[in-house]
Amino acid sequence: MKSKINIAAIIVFYAIAALFRFLAVKTELPSIIDNEYLKILIRGVGPTVAALVVFVFFKIPNTISLKGSYKDIFVPFAVYWILPAVLISLVYYFQNGSFPIILMFTVLLYGLLEEIGWRGFLQEHLSPLPKIYSILIIAVLWFIWHLNFEMSLQNLVFFGIIVAGTWGIGKVYDKTHSLFAVTGVHSLNNFFRNGLHQTELILIVILLAIWIGFLIRYDSYKKYQDIQ
């Protein structure tokens, strides 16, 4: 039997996540930090802090896992973190003559900080709802959390991306329950700070194809193991 949804926990989670986001992007507080990589991370720390608070305060079971359903933690780490970091760094090297490895892992850590909240807490907590309701609730809250309320076509497209991302990342989470896996998918767009052009889009397609193929093969492998 699925547990009931705690509305108070969701409200507290979202209030804390939004407060941290507001402080990080709408105030001068980040200016006291000199490290640019740390500035990136504090923009996404809110959902993690919020999730940890509600886990403790509301005594909600914490099912967060980096490994998820994989037997070996190295598997999702290699496939969803090392692979994109290496491929994208190689492309950056041929384009700009440098390897932005630190930036790549900063972006991945940023995605992890978000995913601990959006998937590790919110998606798990909304699981009793029909899937379409869960997707729409998460997408709307996630979109508003970005605190970008400009009425523009670009923002409308961004909302569409958020909805599609909520569905897609949610599917990966349902399949793997691995925060390494959902972080890799989440970070795809954030890797490319200078926009998406032909090369970047090709890389995204390649990585998505590899990940989808890997998910299908690993799912088949698990089913085979289960019947042995």
UniProtKB/TrEMBL annotation:
<keyword id="KW-1133">Transmembrane helix</keyword>
<protein>
    <submittedName>
        <fullName>CAAX protease self-immunity</fullName>
    </submittedName>
</protein>
<dbReference type="InterPro" id="IPR003675">
    <property type="entry name" value="Rce1/LyrA-like_dom"/>
</dbReference>
<feature type="transmembrane region" description="Helical">
    <location>
        <begin position="73"/>
        <end position="93"/>
    </location>
</feature>
<keyword id="KW-0812">Transmembrane</keyword>
<dbReference type="GO" id="GO:0004175">
    <property type="term" value="F:endopeptidase activity"/>
</dbReference>
<dbReference type="GO" id="GO:0006508">
    <property type="term" value="P:proteolysis"/>
</dbReference>
<feature type="transmembrane region" description="Helical">
    <location>
        <begin position="130"/>
        <end position="147"/>
    </location>
</feature>
<feature type="transmembrane region" description="Helical">
    <location>
        <begin position="201"/>
        <end position="218"/>
    </location>
</feature>
<keyword id="KW-0472">Membrane</keyword>
<keyword id="KW-0645">Protease</keyword>
<feature type="transmembrane region" description="Helical">
    <location>
        <begin position="153"/>
        <end position="170"/>
    </location>
</feature>
<feature type="domain" description="CAAX prenyl protease 2/Lysostaphin resistance protein A-like">
    <location>
        <begin position="99"/>
        <end position="192"/>
    </location>
</feature>
<dbReference type="Pfam" id="PF02517">
    <property type="entry name" value="Rce1-like"/>
</dbReference>
<feature type="transmembrane region" description="Helical">
    <location>
        <begin position="40"/>
        <end position="61"/>
    </location>
</feature>
<dbReference type="GO" id="GO:0080120">
    <property type="term" value="P:CAAX-box protein maturation"/>
</dbReference>
<keyword id="KW-0378">Hydrolase</keyword>
